[in-house]
Amino acid sequence: MIARHSSRRFEGPSLDDLGVLRAAVEAGTFVCAGEALGLTQSAVSRAIARLEQRVGVRMFRRTARSVSLTDDGLRFYQSIAPHLTAIEDATIEAGGSSTKVRGRLRVNVDAGIAQFVLTPRLEPFLTRYPDLSVEIAVRDRMGDLVSEGFDVAVRFGLPEPSALKSRLLMRTGVVTCASPEYVARHGMPTRPSDMEKHQCILMRDHTSGRHYDWEFVRGQTVVPVSASGQLLVNDVGALLAACLGGQGIAQVLDLYTRELLANGHLVQILPAWADETYPLYAYHHSEQLMSAKVRAFLDFVVELTRGKPGGGHVLSAATTRGSSSGKRRR
Predict the structure, then answer these.
(1) Is 83 left (phi over 0), alpha (psi -120 to 50) or beta?
(2) Dihedrals φ, ψ of 297, to 5°?
(3) In this structure, are residues 21 and 59 in contact, taking their beta carbons and an 8 Å threshold?
(4) Strand 165-178 relative to strand 277-284: parallel, antiparallel, unpaired?
(5) Which of 210, 233, 246, 279 has its CA 20 to 30 A from that of 289?
(6) Planar angle of CA 210, 117, 262, nearest 5 degrees
(7) What domains are there in the chain, each with its CATH number?
(8) What does the alpha-carbon distance between residue 132 and residue 269 come to, in Å, rounded to a whole number?
């Protein structure tokens, strides 16, 4: 067991050792952390051992393939990670650097945002900040941003209670669509109940394991339908590919389908019943501890969502907490 210091004099860990801790959390192995820092694996191990001795807790569970934070290590890292970023930014500013947006930015996103929104339009942002590198990590769930070493997340759906700040970026519509070939073969539905006679391409909800419910909304009227079909997918790219291939009818976010509808590759079904919207949120640490790179990225995402053609209704970027009423969807 690691002995705890009982002396009144604080002998805290060095910033170098804390930086090694952050690298190990982000990399997932001591080898990869060493490569990122220009250190050997043994040097990383010694730094973590010093930190554990100083703090008095075991930081990592170690296996042959990876390391993961213990419960004590997670609590410690959650408390110091935002401050490490603030110290890094303060050091850059004190050094007189004209480029404060630099380093590595780790972004947690869902698959649709990565494929259709961020990665196709990231080049101007990276050109604007040549000293910044960005890692886009696709996750089914947001998870714990701090323990997994993420700086920011951009995800659809209502926020859950969290210590993180959530910024509502926009609301995009939910579009029901099919390929022209499917409509030619099977006819165009004229009312929501017609969906029960058609092949619907279903999207799995990773939280429940079953497919998302289908609804049609016009004003205050909400009509649920019992959608069914032979194909169930868990990725928006696969959903769109199947729809384009004529497999059936899909419900997809307008943010992903606008160009496909405009060029005729897809046709919208029941446009008069398309008032349902779905929110896009960014998640980050407190404003006081927000790094320059995170602030620049959030400004870019706000700019991106405001400028996205047909992207839906963009709302105030005011910071909010908690969740609001409504169901979770795709």
Answers:
(1) alpha
(2) -65, -45
(3) yes
(4) antiparallel
(5) 279
(6) 90
(7) 15-80 (1.10.10.10), 155-330 (3.40.190.290)
(8) 43
Residue 327's pLDDT band (cuts 50, 70, 90): very low
Cα separation, 197 vs 92, in Å, equals: 62
User: Cβ contacts of residue 200 below 8 Å, gap of 6+?
Assistant: 214, 227, 228, 229, 248, 249, 250
Give the whole-angstrom CA distance, residue 301 versus residue 317.
11
Nearest Cα to Cα of residue 199 among 212, 183, 216: 183
Of 263-272, 280-289, 301-310, the one with minimum mean pLDDT is 301-310
Q: What is the pLDDT of residues 188-236, one digit of tens each?
A: 999 999 999 999 999 998 878 889 999 999 999 999 999 999 999 999 9
CB 9: neighbour CB atoms within 10 A? 5
Q: What are phi and psi of 101, to 5 degrees?
A: -90, 100
Q: Is the separation of the CB atoms in 286 and 180 below 8 Å?
A: no
Q: How far apart are CA 110 and CA 316, in angstroms?
A: 22
Neighbour-count burial of 42, counting CB atoms closer than 10 A to its CB (0-12 exposed, 13-18 middle, 19+ buried): exposed
Contact partners, residue 257, CB within 8 Å, separation at least 6? 175, 177, 240, 266
